[in-house]
Write a structure and sequence with these properties.
Helices cover 8% and strands 46% of the residues. It is mainly beta.
Length: 671
Amino acid sequence: MKRVAAFIFALCPLLLEAQLEMTQVGTWANVKSFSVNDAEDHMIMTMVDVSGSTTRERLYEVFKSSGVWQTPIPVDNLNDYQDGTANIGGVFMTSDEHRIYYHANFANGIGGYDIYYSDLGPMGWGEPKLLDNTINTEADEYNPTLSPGEEIIYFCKHQVLSDAKLEKKEGDRLSIFLSARQANGKWMASQPVAKELNVGYVESIGLADDGVTLFYASREDRKSDAKIHFALKSIAETWTLPDQLFGDDDVSDLSPRCVGGKFYCVRQVSKKQLSVGKIYKADLPAKCVLKPMFTESGTVKLLNTDRPVRASLVVFNPTSLKIIGRYESDSKDGGYKITSSTSNDYIVDVRSPGYSFASYMLDYARDVKQYIPQKIELFDTIRLVMSVFDSEIFRPLNSKVIAVRINDKQVFRSKELSAGYYEFALPLGSDYNIIATSANFEENKFVFKLAGDIVFSRFERNLLLTPKKRKILLKVVDAESGEPLVATAVFNNLKREEKVTLKSTDAESALELRDGDSYDLTVSNVVGYSFHNRLVDLKTMAGNEIVVELIPLKANTAIRLNNINFDTGSAEISEISFPELDRVVKLMRENPSLRIEIAAHTDNVGSAAYNKKLSEKRAESIINYLIENNISRDLLEPKGYGFSMPLVPNTSEENRAVNRRVEFKVKGDQE
């Protein structure tokens, strides 16, 4: 980072020096105004161009190479603007060399001469932009000069005098005006500076980089030579009495500028009635003391790249929040330059449309100084990680998650990281609607704001989706008489971790289940009745009523057990059978005197003897499971029937699956 100590004039109680050794800059002999950069190798100037009978002031740009100023290059797009007949003068270039101010009499002006500015772009100096009517009026405005950061503008303007005779006599007399920029960037109404400065005939002005020391060229009367004066504005916004900087007889010094401890001006020999002059420079007079200033320079780039970013850097006082200056980084290389006093601390806010926001403390006054980074990195895209959850069971939810940019309705799709987790890459500069949907869930969305100041490049958000519900009416009745029964119903969701329990339900009970899901329904806890288990698939189920018929536990009543599975040719119980067998255990405990037969049946694949033996082994395996769960062997009787008692003919695979079954048969109470 380049941090250069510069120096600005301050008033010193010494006598006026008679002469200074002045050195001519360049070989140009027709200069009217100019502005030179801090490195003293780049200059914008206006020169008088005489073509036949037409005399016109035009804008030029010139660079120094190997210590020698080169040939000035005309800025044609400005010189030829509109009809190409305007005069351009009073040029001022900002310290970052990104903008020039000047006066011109273009056809689109408000008065005769108005103040314009142009920004430096990839193709050179841009089209003239007219300052608003708080600066430009029907009167003529000339010679703009601005404070660092362009927060205060000084310019010359004809001030209407209250005395009509004096107004007629001195109507061409100029006064120095100033205007300050408001927080919204608009200029305040301009006002003349202190009357102590507005004496004589002001010709041109130049403001030092401290923003408080003003130089101006002024004549005592119309016929006298112009001399350079300067005055210092105090914190209380009052001005010191102006003091003449230096001056030679028979020479007019105009367009005062101060760069790098050197004083520049245009010198014009008045006795020859010249209307143009040459640029000279000299060391500062001993009566001027240098006030330390610092220049902070660096670049603004896209994060993790070398791509430049055009950004605004606003410097303000952290206590008063008053803006001290506004700067911009260059679109070609991202370079910026900030000039500030060493006696204060500042906050620098960095912004660019469509990019992140950065803020830094800048403080040269303390022993431990604070600087802003040499490379400020902004980003134009953020990462948003979304967690989509079920609002009732708080589990990750497979969803479709999109982002819709509000300003143009463009849709951005998420990348799935894992079940229920999604990631977006979203450009900054606009707000988004984040929308999540999932089958059989209500849509949910929120506004994700990326149009304002964004500091972080990664965000995490949770979004809950509410399941759509279906109202179900459950009826529990006696399978023989149809009489209503009071029971406990448990719905276990087979798709997700959800369990809905209705304890001691009435004959008819209403409940809400998730539409589209499947449930394992168990109805039990009715003394003297078997439990009931079935699959409830709300995706295919017609209607909204479930009727459960409980079978009385009477002697010789056979009840089929669901989901009792064995591997082919095996008597080993598969794990899928355990929930149903546990329901049998529960039933036996609720009816402690109940005696049952466990009956195993097969299809007709294989011999009768083989199937008979296999069914007996399977029945015995189930008996053993019940015994392991503390059911007395005395209450249990295994029985294998092979394929001797089919429910349907063994004529198809579907029928054979029906015949492969396990039942328990009530044998009566324990003797």
